[in-house]
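Ex. 9. Protein: TetR family transcriptional regulator.
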Amino acid sequence: MQREMDHEAEMAGRPVNHQRRAELLDAAVDYAVEHGFAELSWRPVACALGVSTTTLVHHFGTKEQMLEVILGRLRERTFAATSEAVGDQPDLAAAARAVWTRTSDPRQWAEFRLFFAVYGRALQAPRQFAEFLERVVADWMRSLVEAQGPDTDPAVATRTATLVIATIRGLLLDLLTTGDRDRVQDAAETFLATLEHKARPQRDARPR
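Predicted structure tokens for TetR family transcriptional regulator:
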């Protein structure tokens, strides 16, 4: 007991090693993806990461602060993956298809199950998770607005991007809930085809 107290006192006096904190944070997100949001408490996470709870407290502060940074990193990962999918796609239709292909990949399902669990938790505690809620739509919105090109009316671009985000997230939630890939993919193809149909006249109208 005394040994643990001495270790805690020693840790409290040390500055936080930010590289080590980043490594622990990524490992904690991996743990959360595998085990779910409900298991994010000091002891299970510390055990899985092979560190003491004191080490986690030293690097993250309170349990609530640890949850916040885990959520932030999860959001960053999700956005980075979808941004990579959007990449230099020529228009919104291609960008939306790339995002759907990426997010509907079964290899990503565990991460997105956690994402939706987090979303629900954040809606129940909006003050605690204000940054997550503020940026979880805004990140995608910016990318999808830009994918429509500088000549698109800003109000139209925002409206269309909102529709794309809501539709893709709704389809993904349906897919994760039911596992009915054929039905959901058929609906996704119908939606993506409408975007491609709208984009086609603009491409055809370009000077050759």
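Check your answer against this statement. DSSP finds ten helices and no strands in the chain.
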